[in-house]
């Protein structure tokens, strides 16, 4: 399951740097989470780091993107492989 940021976001800027997959970015009015990059920190941490640091608790599970822990792990591995491939071509 990917996470999402609700309209209660106060744009405090603490979630974006915590995301190991660079899934969080500034949207039109509040931060947004790219569901294709969000693994809920599976493969990196035991808990979603953005949820841990959010002072207004506005980061629930996105019901439109339901995934198992195994699917999230595979997504994490694919993102890491993409990153490694991109780093290899940049060298």
TrEMBL record:
It comes from the Bacteria. Gene3D superfamilies: 3.30.70.20. Keywords: 4Fe-4S, Iron, Iron-sulfur, Metal-binding. Residues 1-29, 31-64 form the 4Fe-4S ferredoxin-type domain. PROSITE patterns: 4FE4S_FER_1 (PS00198), 4FE4S_FER_2 (PS51379). The keyword Chaperone does not apply. SUPFAM superfamilies: 4Fe-4S ferredoxins (SSF54862). InterPro entries: 4Fe4S_Fe-S-bd (IPR017896), 4Fe4S_Fe_S_CS (IPR017900), PSI_iron-sulfur_center (IPR050157), YfhL-like (IPR047927). It holds the Pfam family Fer4_7. PANTHER family: PHOTOSYSTEM I IRON-SULFUR CENTER (PTHR24960:SF79), PHOTOSYSTEM I IRON-SULFUR CENTER-RELATED (PTHR24960). This is YfhL family 4Fe-4S dicluster ferredoxin.
């Amino acid at each position: 399951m990917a996470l999402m940021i609700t309209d209660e976001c106060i744009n405090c800027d603490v979630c974006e740097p915590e995301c190991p997959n660079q899934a969080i970015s500034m949207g039109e009015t509040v931060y947004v989470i790219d569901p294709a990059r969000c693994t809920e920190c599976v493969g990196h941490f035991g808990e979603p780091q953005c949820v841990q640091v959010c002072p207004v608790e506005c980061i629930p599970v996105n019901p439109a993107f339901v995934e198992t822990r195994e699917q999230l792990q595979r997504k994490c591995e694919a993102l890491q492989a993409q990153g490694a491939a991109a780093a290899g071509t940049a060298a």
